């Protein structure tokens, strides 16, 4: 194969190949009598591996180290590894297309594209004019967009809350505290009732260490005025204590 042919086969540019030759990453093959480089299947396999390693974020120096560890392996072994890698990429593409198909089938949303799991949760939630409920929705949208670890499992665990009419009453009570000070006497009771409404299934899928005043918890707290912030802070503390007890029981 000539340089243009191997470049087209592997999906890189001829310029990239010449650069790899220049820095010693890809050995330069022997030249034919006419002066053209003659590339082999092994060269193509090595070039494909370089391409894959750079695509996953390795620097060229790191790629060099990986290739040095692979030196001396049989061609069939390297080919099998590349085949497995391509199969993995196919599965990832298939999974992404499934998510895309679900988004395309869903009705247009003013919130922008949502994961199918969150879209299903929000569809079940009753319509309400509660500012506190709207704020919770915004937090879920942020969680979904950020790709936080809990994902679909968390949204599934929250479905019973979406179906519970008593949650609307809790939101109304939280709305009433919008302009109140942090020491409002209604705070403790509401915090206790909100924490009690959260099922254990939700706690089971919350990443370890949350809810807390650090990380995600701090972002949420900063979004509330004083009395509501105090309610949410107390709820986080109560849920964190429940999570610790749950962990100790499981151990």
From TrEMBL:
<dbReference type="InterPro" id="IPR047057">
    <property type="entry name" value="MerR_fam"/>
</dbReference>
<keyword id="KW-0238">DNA-binding</keyword>
<dbReference type="InterPro" id="IPR009061">
    <property type="entry name" value="DNA-bd_dom_put_sf"/>
</dbReference>
<feature type="coiled-coil region">
    <location>
        <begin position="72"/>
        <end position="106"/>
    </location>
</feature>
<keyword id="KW-0175">Coiled coil</keyword>
<dbReference type="GO" id="GO:0003677">
    <property type="term" value="F:DNA binding"/>
</dbReference>
<protein>
    <submittedName>
        <fullName>MerR family transcriptional regulator</fullName>
    </submittedName>
</protein>
<dbReference type="InterPro" id="IPR000551">
    <property type="entry name" value="MerR-type_HTH_dom"/>
</dbReference>
<dbReference type="Pfam" id="PF13411">
    <property type="entry name" value="MerR_1"/>
</dbReference>
<feature type="domain" description="HTH merR-type">
    <location>
        <begin position="1"/>
        <end position="69"/>
    </location>
</feature>
